[in-house]
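seq:
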Amino acid sequence: MALQEKNRSLMCGLPAGLYVRELDGETVLYLDEAPFELTGLLLRWLRLQPDSSAAPEQQPTASPDYDTLRALLDAERPDCARRFDVNDRMFIRWEAWQAFLSWTLKTAEAEIGRMETRAGDGPARA
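struct:
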């Protein structure tokens, strides 16, 4: 794992934290600052949102390069569209990041529920 990836890694505790940026009055997340382990999933999720344009068949790798990121994010939805700043860095609105995290949590909770049901445990009680 390269140093830059390590600094964005959940596995390493995201030492610098998640960067919240303001750009033209909007809160945004630059994709090169998103948690490393979630970048591929985030890209795939973004391109599958309703109203997105047809996306290329190419699947992201664990560490997609910049050209792959641009090719995968061709949706132009106001809430989930990729955008580029004056330095050609790709970002998404903070609302898209929040929606992705919400979906990730719901998906994980549903899968754990299925695993508990298969194991005969039922839902855990706190």
